[in-house]
Amino acid sequence: MHNPQLNKHGELQHLLTIEGLPRAVVTRILDTASSFVGVGDRDVKKVPLMRGKSVFNLFFENSTRTRTTFEIASKRLSADVINLNISASSASKGESLLDTIDNLAAMHADMFVVRHAQSGAPYLIAKHLIDTHQPHVHVVNAGDGRHAHPTQGLLDMYTIRHYKKDFSNLTVAVVGDILHSRVARSDIHGLTTLGVPEVRAIGPRTLLPTGLEQMGVRVFTDMNEGLKGVDVIIMLRLQNERMSGALLPSAQEYFKSYGLTPERLALAKPDAIVMHPGPMNRGVEIDSAVADGAQAVILPQVTFGIAVRMAVMSMLAGS
Amino acid sequence: MTMTDLDLDAEALYAQLEQQVKTGLAGTSRLAIVGIYSGGAWLAERLARSLGVTDTGNIDVSFYRDDYAQKGLHPDVRPSQINFDVNGATILLVDDVLYTGRTTRAAINTLFDYGRPAKIMLAALIDRGGRQLPVAADYVAKQINVADHELLILQKTDDGRLSLTVDHA
Known about the structure:
The complex is a heterodimer. By secondary structure, chain A is an alpha/beta fold.
């Protein structure tokens, strides 16, 4: 089937997931992002590419950080940004998702940045725009349910390439609640697309989805085993609500088995980097000594995230 | 690729341009040299070395082009690099071929987002006419007429030598 993310010229039309994106497209996004990184250091931190375009941030689920970085990225591209707090607006009055989209498209929206608790919501919107012949309107998935968070995955790939230069000899471990994590899924697709030879998933059996091996991932339930010799450690946030769901005994127990401490970090390669998508739970999945340590690249991830989102949006708006 | 009857020796043209720039800019204080990717960057690097100028930079004008709405973002954008304080500097902008003037306009806009220069000048290896904006070069090695459908392309070999070819669009 035709990939709905690409137009007939093979250019990015919507960004819904990293899964199935050609490696050349992923690489081009990272290359383009590298040109945007320097824009943040200048007197004028804006370029005029998206002047006159309207970007609608549709956050059906709260996320201050992701919404803010998309807003900054849009503004640095000179677009007009409209933030819609959906939970407080028409959705609560019973308007359907696609009616909301049609109304905003009638206001001449050029791009929708969509965060939704339901997996597949951004697909539904993109398909609707294709079916109603509105190719000038683009969709960026800013996280849908457990499914995907492609810009987080891409900024993680950017960060890894920045520090490790090359993907072809790396061992990368993703640690924590992989079952509920759209970030983990996007990271795994990004890593395999870019040719990382060994991707590991580390976590308690109750938080590991089935089918990881089919994605080419090595699974570890013993963190000390899993961290041996890795180049990159991607920690995932442990969502507090998982404790109540009987999947885990307690935060303290979790930290004892899966918290990243300096002792555990020493099992990885000496130059290993530590990543985290934020927000961090210090003392739950990561020790403060590691989070603030020399090997952590958690704040550079945030900075690179803006450049990566600028790259994605400018490629979409120009397609 | 077809060569027209134009005899374009890029190395000889570069030598002329370098001589003009050396004469014209001798003694200029706070002089900086900035190349426009890709051909202009090669020329700027050589000019800076030859003039002993250490304030240098290269810019990619893709984020400032006026054809983004028609053509989208250029697939090979490179990071712009400016290693000096643009505020108050006298900047020699270097491009390989001056044509419509749109690239020059985009390059000037790019520079202004780094600061307010005292002065910007333009050097080009070739002025092929066909201007669509009120832009003129301060230093140019050769003025020629080239048909609209022909592209002049500056290339650099592995040993650093420059050559010019004419391609049919």
